[in-house]
Specification:
92 residues
């Protein structure tokens, strides 16, 4: 997770947009069981890890990721807590 090489690979391969698309699926719904909780948390953790690089932060802004995280906060579902964490990393 802390490998800059892997973080760059994700950013270079349009990975930030793909991660945002995967995370967007959890905007209005809560996980049903423990496996889904772990999946959602892992998706957000990967997103946070990638945001340690400035170029990935820029890709998130371009992909309207900040707006998505704000919408998740407003929805007050399970992903809201994770979205707040992503926003903290995006502002580093």
């Amino acid at each position: 997770q802390t490998s800059a090489v892997n973080q760059r690979r994700v950013g270079a391969a349009d990975g930030m947009d793909r991660l945002l698309q995967l995370v967007a699926a959890w905007k209005k719904k809560d996980p049903k069981d423990g496996e889904e909780v772990e999946l959602v948390e892992n998706l957000f953790n990967v997103l946070c890890s990638c945001l340690m690089l400035p170029e990935n932060q820029a890709a998130m802004v371009e992909g309207e990721g900040v707006e998505l995280m704000v919408l998740m906060l407003q929805a007050r579902k399970f992903a809201a807590r994770c979205a707040l964490k992503v926003l903290a990393y995006a502002l580093l």
